[in-house]
Every structure is written in structure tokens, then in C-alpha cells.
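Okay, can you check this protein?
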Amino acid sequence: MYSEKPGGCGGMLEETIQELDENFEYIRHEYRGNRIIIHVRSKRQEVTCPYCDQQSKKIYSKYTRRCQDLPIQGKTVFIEIESRKLFCENPDCEKKTFVDPIDCISDYARMTKRLEEKIMGVCKHTSSITAAGILREMGIKIGKSAICNRFKKK
């Protein structure tokens, strides 16, 4: 395992992260075999409650969320996000807590929206078995059944 902080290759990855989501702050990255894990967190100082539109800074808890992104030079890329759950500071709000939203990932998804688009683009022209093989060679970890499930949702 090799880890690197800002500078060197980190500068390029920092730009890639900014393109993915301008609200992400690059922390560091590490190499694990044929994988690159990029650690990020939200830069937002205040987050708007999606239920009542009240701004909040009050953190309830933090947790790590991992999702797959587009590969880099054939290496599988995972974004490890330090996510936050916040208290809603509006006493009249029906919800007491909410999650800091991540714009580049659909709710409950395990991959970025841009990776989903890439997968769907490859799958339009081939069978799910062939698409899974092509995507695997590109460095995208996905199986035939996951591809079929995505098509059913779309």
C-alpha cells in the first residue's frame, strides 16, 4: 500500500475531484494493488436541510461512504467520502437530522453518476456479458447481473 498527500500526483487527482464535485476537498490518495482510493470530504461550511430549507452547521455524526468512479490508466478508482449527518436547526422541521448531499452520486448508489453514464454507453451496443468483459478490462468493477439491473431501472 502506497499513500500520498497533496503535491506530486495528488495535484492531478485534486483537479479530478474538483471536476467530479466542487464541494469535495481532496485529503489524500493511496494505491492498493490495481486500485486507487481517493479520500475526500465536504468543504461546505453550512448545509441546507432538504425538508425545510434551513441552514445548519451542527454535525450529528460522520461516516465513510465508498463509491466507484471512472478508472484512471486502467486502475479501478474508489472515492472514499467522509460524509456527515447534520442536525436540522429549525425546531419546527419534521426531521431532526439529514445527510449532507453528494451531488455527483445518486441516493444509495455505489458509483458516481459519470461512471453510470459510461456503463450505460457501453451497454447500449452489446450484451450484458460482453459489456461486463469490456468494462472489466477498462478497470470498472461490475458484473453482468448488475448491468441487467441497471437497464431494468432505466
